[in-house]
Amino acid sequence: MLLLLACTRSAPTDSGATDDSVSDDDTSVEDTSCEKSTWYVDADRDGFGGGSTEACDQPPDHIDVGGDCDDEDASVYPGAPELCDGQQNDCSSDWTQDDLVTFTHTDGTVTDVSADFRGSPGVPAEPWFDQSGTFEFCAATYHFDLKTNGEAVTLRGAGSGATLFDGGGAHRFLYIQKSDAVVRVEGITMTNGWGCYGTAISVWQANSCSESGASSGGGYSNVDLTLQDVVIEGNENLRGNALVSLKAGKLSLIDSVIRDNEGDVIWAEESDFSCQNSAITGNTETGVEIRVEQFETSHEVSVTDCDFGAAGTAEDNEGTDFVIDQWPSGTDVRVDLEDGVSFTCDTTVAACE
Predict the structure, then answer these.
(1) Would you state the pLDDT for residue 294?
(2) For residue 239, how far is the Cα from the chain centroid?
(3) Which of 156, 161, 170, 194 has the fewest beta carbons under 10 Å from its own?
(4) Reported pTM
(5) What is the average pLDDT across 301-328?
(6) Which pLDDT score is estimated for 327?
(7) DSSP secondary structure string, 136-191?
């Protein structure tokens, strides 16, 4: 019988053999031959970076421009326009927000217009703007007579206790020269103004005054004017004309005070009027006069929690607090009011409740 035996043979081991599993073109080893660049993280995406890193390739959220002194605020970077926000937006070491005025256009572009508003008590600046946008006034005292022709304009101060418009006893503050405009004034005090037909704010009169009388001009109507956190005090109206005048528009007082002025306060011809949590006190003439054509037009008049000065006190207006004048018949509503009053009026029948 022939017996066959199967056997196996192990491959010899060679400690110097090469492992075929390791490829000659393995790239897992860091390439130290590249030229590294400095990259800056741009967390707020304003085009300037803060913290830096060295890398061959640009890391995510990094750029090649540094210098951002606050990479968590997109309004702060080298060369940024200054804003009334209490910080150096341009990363400069020099403080530049005293009497700063900026204008933000409707497309978001911010322009420093401070030079246009730098006047003096005797020589006010006379800026004129025909664009829509927002004026920002830092905490300071300003002397100017602004004329605006924009369709939508806001004047915003740092608060009525911080931003002061001073008329120097010689001029008004704002002349709106655009029909159908929407205008807001916020966080501002207007004082020491002088003139006719809108000593503080005029919408439709040219405010040309003389000692012998007042001449009016212009005809801008349907303006929607809102005053919020505004103080109008210590102004003088020549021959008793109004501090705020408008025609065929809308006037809204919100959290505002009009006090201790000489002359009528508000003249609103063919206009809506609303007062919310505001005060019209201590003035020498009529508080609010709404003039309408007899029985022909209806206007909304709404007063909510507003003060007109209690009778017999220094805060009481010397003239009638509230008047609806139905011209030319003379069928009027004339009432003296107290503090904290609320009511609405129907101008077509000259009645309030």
Answers:
(1) 52
(2) 33
(3) 161
(4) 0.79
(5) 89
(6) 74
(7) EE-SSEE-B-EEE--SEEEEE-S-TTT-EEE-TTT--SEEE--TT-EEEEEEEEEE
* Alpha-carbon distances of 122 from 75, 138, 167, 308, rounded to whole Å: 36, 22, 9, 33
Compute the distance between CA of residue 304 and CA of residue 244 in angstroms, rounded to an integer: 20
Report the Cα 316 to chain-centroid distance in Å: 32
Contact (CB, 8 A) for 254 and 228: yes
Instruction: For tokens 């491959």, name the residue.
Output: 11
Give the whole-angstrom CA distance, residue 106 versus residue 109.
7
Q: What is the DSSP letter of 226?
A: E
Angstrom CA distances, 68 to 58, 61, 190, 241, stand at 18, 14, 38, 53
Nearest residue to 240 (alpha-carbon basis) of 267, 280, 204, 269: 267
Structure tokens at 138: 């830092």
Residue 325 amino acid letter: D
Beta-carbon contacts of 28 under 8 Å, excluding residues fewer than 6 positions away, are none
Whether the CB-CB separation of 332 and 296 falls below 8 Å is answered with no
Instruction: Output phi, psi for 289, to 5 deg.
Output: -125, 120
Residues of the chain above pLDDT 70, percent: 80
**pLDDT value at residue 188:** 97
